[in-house]
Amino acid sequence: MVAKKTGTAEKSGPVPQARAGAEALAVRPGEDPWTEAEAEEARAGLRADAERIRTEIDASGQALAGLMRDSGGGAGDDEADTGTKNITREHELSLAANAREMLRQTEQALVRLDEGTYGTCENCGNPIGKARLQAFPRATLCVDCKQKQERRG
């Protein structure tokens, strides 16, 4: 018997994300393939990093709001006080920008894990290396391409 469509969608939970198996992840010649446990460990580490970074971004946002509120008047501040407040605010803005970029990289690494492209160099398409990814899970370039990028500038 075939179920008839009624035109009303049944509510179900969120659509699960597609996950590529660990065997689909690239490795360099001579490296052992990724195991499901290793891939899940990388995924869990990246999720924990993302949560930690989100917390840092929230704290930074609150600190910035306080700095902006405190810098409003400036009455009675001498030039050194004003300069210190400006430097502190610029430093906090820089930290927040760095944290947002790190969060973006972390979220992209999670997407690559789910798509099965984790471990493939975005520049040349060669494997990045399992050991490199375990040390730096957000890596998107193999060692050779990263060295070339750093030499260029």
TrEMBL record:
GO molecular function: DNA binding; zinc ion binding
Domain of life, source organism: Bacteria
Protein name: DNA-binding protein
Keyword Transferase: no
Gene3D superfamilies referenced in this protein's UniProt entry, alphabetically: DksA, coiled-coil domain (1.20.120.910)
PANTHER family documented for this protein: RNA POLYMERASE-BINDING TRANSCRIPTION FACTOR DKSA (PTHR33823:SF2), RNA POLYMERASE-BINDING TRANSCRIPTION FACTOR DKSA-RELATED (PTHR33823)
Region entry Disordered, spans: 1-47, 66-87
Zn finger (dksA C4-type) start-end: 121-145
